[in-house]
């Protein structure tokens, strides 16, 4: 086991890897000096896999073999709105796997989102290993604060497939706060406004020296910079249809070109008042090529995305409420994620919080740096060495979603409320409802609704083998625990015999343990991006 552990920000659009060297956290660049790497994997016909910025270049040339934005669908079910949305816009094939899991089909081979993420994680591990000249195996990986158990479990499985020992998964805003406050001996209450490619989180943290305590968090896993791209895309596709009677949306390849151009244009609006969007061959068919060329002003762009920006403040209201504070109680607002470079976002955030947000940190790197700081701290605690560097910080986080169980008639009952500090354990006694009942069936959900179907099913299990008795006689204690990674564990105990059953939440990952083992064996020669 090496001495250095890395921090990985596994982003929707880009990923970043960092480590602590001589007491200072730093981002590891690749050989070309890139510090951010596209979260994209390209699967060549010859079996070669390319990951990162080079893979991104294949998106237009080889759209069916180039997989991007997999974080939007990892840990989700094939019937979810997010997967349906991805199917509509992705040129690669997203299909249904076992138990409504999501699979990506390439050349008739089915890959899970976990495997794609594993390729990206492996690439980050490889970069750090090459940089250090020794193999790195341990990492802290970040996830959006609002990720549910299914998404966290799937991310952890991706780490295992990549051959990483995931020491801890921490929430992206918590990592950002760590990068902001670590070693500065601050006493501050801050808001972390984290707008990524696909998700938005707002967390309120209290920093007290080396203690980082999350007071409240809220999020929207359907809001991110990619939605800004889609707004621009929709606007341009409509305009093109009105002007030329041709619908670019009808062809996924043309749509992909427009999508790329819209993302580039969106980024330019961070620094430019107007952007010329020009695609020479936006529409290609046997009759020839058609060109798209439109000048869009920042004002026009702002009006297209304003409601998305406003939507984020509903989440801020919820997080402040959960943290029991108001904007006046805050000492600072920290921006995380590429879209926070947009003036419309900065201005609106400034207006909402009544203060200019802190822009001293690089919004694309801060999460990886925080993860690296935590990784170094955990490594130091586990090796029991004393050093003046990397004193472990104490991260006190909360669960973003309530944990619930199904009761009768499609209703649910809360076991652990959202915004409860983790780790946490709560028990509940269940009993039989019929004389001679042989088993109890328990379904576990995450979400805020009191209706089963409006929450996310984490898993279900059947507890049996207890003594048969009259209704209400048998008592089964079920313990629900959420660990520091935000992962849910359930155990059931027959109170009479003390017989215990450790329950694995079976639906949590889209992969069974056997499948994970098989993938790891298949990839023994290296989960080998070129
Ligand atoms: P993630 O990889 O999840 O952090 O998200 C990256 C998101 O940031 C994508 O939607 C990018 O298009 C967006 N992004 C990156 N740089 C900029 C920029 N300069 N201005 C606006 N959005 C950006």
Key structural traits:
single chain; Actin, Chain A, domain 4; binds adenosine monophosphate; 12 helices; six-stranded mixed sheet; Substrate Binding Domain Of DNAk, Chain A, domain 1; alpha+beta; Nucleotidyltransferase, domain 5; 530 residues; 3 domains
**What structural class do the secondary elements suggest?**
alpha+beta
Q: Note the beta-strand portion.
A: 25-35%
Please report the first level of CATH classification, the CATH class of the largest domain.
Alpha Beta
Q: How many domains, in number, for the residues?
A: 3
Assign a percent range to the helix content.
Answer: 25-40%
**Sheet with the most strands, sense and barrel status:** 6 strands, mixed
In whole angstroms, the N-to-C terminal distance is 25 Å
The 3D shape can be described as globular
Number of helices: 12
Bound molecules: adenosine monophosphate
Per CATH, the architecture of the largest domain is: 2-Layer Sandwich
What oligomeric state best describes the polypeptide chains here? single chain
| CATH superfamily membership of the largest domain | ATPase, nucleotide binding domain
What name is given to the CATH topology of the largest domain?
A: Nucleotidyltransferase, domain 5
Radius of gyration over all CA atoms, rounded: 24 Å
């Amino acid at each position: 086991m090496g001495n250095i552990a890395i921090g990985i920000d596994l982003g929707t659009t880009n990923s970043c890897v960092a480590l602590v060297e001589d007491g200072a956290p730093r981002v590891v660049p690749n050989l070309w000096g890139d510090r951010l790497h596209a979260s994209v994997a390209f699967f060549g016909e010859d079996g070669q896999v390319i990951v990162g910025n080079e893979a991104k270049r294949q998106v237009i040339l080889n759209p069916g073999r180039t997989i991007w934005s997999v974080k939007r669908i990892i840990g989700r079910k094939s019937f979810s709105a997010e997967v349906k949305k991805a199917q509509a816009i992705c040129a690669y094939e997203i299909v249904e796997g076992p138990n409504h899991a999501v699979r990506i089909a390439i050349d008739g081979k089915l890959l899970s989102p976990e495997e794609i993420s594993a390729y990206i994680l492996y690439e980050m591990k490889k970069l750090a290993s090459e940089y250090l000249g020794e193999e790195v195996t341990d990492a802290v990986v970040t996830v959006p604060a609002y990720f549910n158990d299914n998404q966290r479990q799937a991310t952890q499985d991706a780490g295992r497939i990549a051959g990483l020992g995931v020491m801890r998964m921490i929430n992206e805003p918590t990592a950002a706060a760590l990068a902001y406050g670590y070693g500065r001996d601050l006493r501050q209450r801050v808001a972390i406004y984290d707008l990524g490619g696909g998700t938005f989180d707002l967390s309120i943290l209290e920093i007290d020296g080396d203690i980082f305590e999350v007071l409240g968090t809220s999020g929207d896993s359907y809001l991110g910079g990619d939605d800004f791209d889609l707004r621009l895309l929709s606007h341009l596709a409509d305009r093109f249809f009105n002007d030329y009677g041709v619908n670019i949306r009808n062809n996924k390849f043309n749509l992909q070109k427009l999508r790329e151009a819209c993302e580039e244009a969106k980024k330019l609006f961070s620094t430019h008042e107007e952007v010329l969007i020009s695609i020479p061959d936006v529409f290609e068919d046997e009759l020839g090529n058609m060109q798209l060329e439109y000048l869009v002003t920042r004002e026009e762009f702002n009006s297209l995305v304003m409601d998305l920006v406003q939507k984020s403040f509903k989440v801020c209201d919820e997080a402040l409420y959960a943290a029991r504070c108001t904007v006046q109680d805050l000492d600072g607002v920290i921006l995380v994620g590429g879209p926070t470079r947009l003036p419309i976002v900065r201005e609106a955030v400034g207006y909402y919080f009544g203060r200019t947000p802190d822009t001293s940190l690089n919004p694309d790197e801060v999460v990886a740096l925080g993860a690296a700081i935590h990784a170094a701290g955990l490594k130091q605690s586990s090796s029991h060495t004393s050093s003046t560097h990397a004193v472990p910080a104490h991260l006190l986080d909360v669960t973003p979603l309530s944990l619930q169980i199904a009761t009768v008639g499609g209703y649910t009952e809360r076991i652990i409320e959202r915004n409860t500090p983790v780790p946490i354990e709560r028990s509940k006694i269940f009993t039989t409802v019929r004389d001679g009942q042989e088993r109890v069936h328990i379904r576990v959900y995450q979400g805020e609704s009191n209706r089963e179907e409006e929450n996310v099913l984490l898993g279900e299990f059947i507890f049996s083998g207890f003594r048969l008795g009259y209704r209400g006689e048998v008592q089964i204690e079920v313990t629900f625990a959420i660990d520091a990674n935000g992962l849910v564990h359930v155990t059931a105990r027959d109170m009479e015999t003390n017989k215990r059953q450790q329950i694995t939440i079976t639906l949590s990952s889209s992969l069974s343990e056997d499948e994970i083992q098989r993938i790891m064996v298949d990839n023994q020669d290296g989960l080998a991006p070129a």
